[in-house]
Amino acid sequence: DTAVSQTPKYLVTQMGNDKSIKCEQNLGHDTMYWYKQDSKKFLKIMFSYNNKELIINETVPNRFSPKSPDKAHLNLHINSLELGDSAVYFCASSQGLKGGWNYGYTFGSGTRLTVV
Amino acid sequence: RKEVEQDPGPFNVPEGATVAFNCTYSNSASQSFFWYRQDCRKEPKLLMSVYSSGNEDGRFTAQLNRASQYISLLIRDSKLSDSATYLCVVRAHTGTASKLTFGTGTRLQVTL
Question: Measured between beta carbons, which residues in chain A are less than 8 angstroms from residue B46?
Answer without folding.
Answer: 104-106
